[in-house]
Amino acid sequence: MKVVIAIDSFKGSLSSIEAGMAIKEGILKACDAEIVVKPLADGGEGTVDALFYGTDGSEVKIDVSGPLGEKVTCTYGILKGGKTAIIEMAQAAGIKLVPKHKLNPLYTTTYGVGEMIKDAIDRGCRNFIIGIGGSATNDGGIGMLKALGYEFYDAEGLPVNPIGNDLSKIASLKTDNAHDKLSECSFRIACDVNSPLYGPTGAAYVFGPQKGATPQIVEALDAGLRNYSEVVKKTTGKDTSSIAGAGAAGGLGYAFITFLNAKLESGIEIILDEIRLEDDIKDCDVVITGEGKLDYQTTMGKAPIGVAKLAKKHGKTVIAFAGGVTKDAYKCNDEGIDAFFSIQQLPTTVKKTMEYDVARYNLMSTAEQVFRLISMFL
Fold first, then answer.
1. Beta 34-38 vs 2-6: how paired, if at all?
2. Which of 166, 177, 226, 358 has the greatest CB tally within 10 Å of its CB?
3. What is the pLDDT, as a whole number, of residue 355?
4. Residue 61: phi, psi to the nearest 5?
5. φ, ψ for residue 191 (rounded to 5)?
């Protein structure tokens, strides 16, 4: 029996690989099997680690500007061959980098994201896979663009600050000094957000509040994004503000589409493609996936469903394990997961179940019992 394991991380407990290895250990206690463990992520947190592990790459650590302008140490990956960089924008501009009392998207920037890209270009990378989830920003990507050499000016010809507050001040822009290697680069952006740049369903209104924006700040940011896109349209002739995903990461999606000719793609589809999961699934008997919690949101394009759909393409049985399941998790069965199991055993606190040793044991033990049952029918 061949089993392929591609399970998402149990956030706060186990990484994708740690979870996969726990399942592998449990299966081997129950039966003999050929087991392949693949890393999994959906373009958000954990993407660098997943692809770094899955493709035999190298790791780079650099200091860049954080969301508030302070220095932060970021990690990104370069895949084997040295031409492809894997970047999580949240490493440089993530909401977890900002203390709660300082959350305010008027004053955060994506400048550090541009510094990471520039560093990778200078190291020889020309292909980029970038996850843009978890941002603290609403600067329309002007911070990133400024770090790459693009220039934005106010009505008096003075440079604007690369923050959300100054989007409304933009009156002109110059592209002459943009990094000369950008034209050689391609960008695949892991983005599962469909929002346009501005408007009621845009970056500011939908995501601004969770980044600390009051109703008044939301209005100001939305107006700024609209002004920014109008200036860009007049200068470049490009009108991309209404493209689905332009509003992702506070408008960073718009900057990638408009200035870097990027493609916005489903995060899980990028990951599955890069780790070549389909090659392993083709001749396997069982596929195992899962995540920390299975619920209705899992069916909305999250990693386990991406795995399940790929498995069903080849008619494979799919089992999912989760730290917990909700009443509406049954909808996962309609999306390709044949059976799912909560790994919880005795009643206890959520805090206790999330401890590394507890989560690992519960996952291993559940996998063992499930495969004891499966082996009875082989």
1. parallel
2. 166
3. 93
4. -115, 130
5. -145, 120
Beta carbons of 354 and 16 less than 8 angstroms apart: no
Dihedral sign (CA 155, 161, 166, 168): positive
Output the pLDDT for position 364. 98
Using a CB cutoff of 8 Å and minimum separation of 24, what contacts does 78-82 make?
A: 78/120, 78/123, 78/125, 79/51, 79/55, 79/274, 80/55, 80/56, 82/123, 82/124, 82/125
Could you tell me how many helices (H) and strands (E) the chain has, helices first? 13, 13
pLDDT at 54: 58
Residues whose CB is less than 8 angstroms from the CB of residue 312 and which lie 6 or more positions away in sequence, other chains included: 318, 336
Beta strands in the chain (DSSP E): 2-6, 34-38, 58-65, 71-78, 84-88, 127-131, 151-153, 172-174, 186-190, 263-265, 286-294, 317-325, 339-342
Q: Is 350 exposed, middle or buried (0-12, 13-18, 19+ CB in 10 A)?
A: exposed
What residue has token string 């008027």?
106
pLDDT recorded at residue 267: 84
pTM attached to this predicted model: 0.85
Tell me, what's the pLDDT at 55? 62
Q: Which residue has the tokens 């110059």?
A: 174
Residue 64's φ and ψ, nearest 5 degrees, are -135, 175
pLDDT under 50: residue ranges of the chain: none
Per-residue model confidence as pLDDT tens digits over 304-327: 999 999 999 999 999 999 999 999
* Rounded distance between C-alpha atoms, residue 57 and residue 79, angstroms: 4
| Cβ-based neighbours of 172, under 8 Å, separated by 6 or more | 152, 153, 157, 231, 235
- Which domains, and CATH codes, for the chain? 2-38+285-375 (3.40.50.10350), 47-267 (3.90.1510.10)
Question: Within a 13 Å sphere around the CA of 21, how many CA atoms are in the beta-carbon half?
Answer: 6
Distance CA 319, CA 246 (A): 35
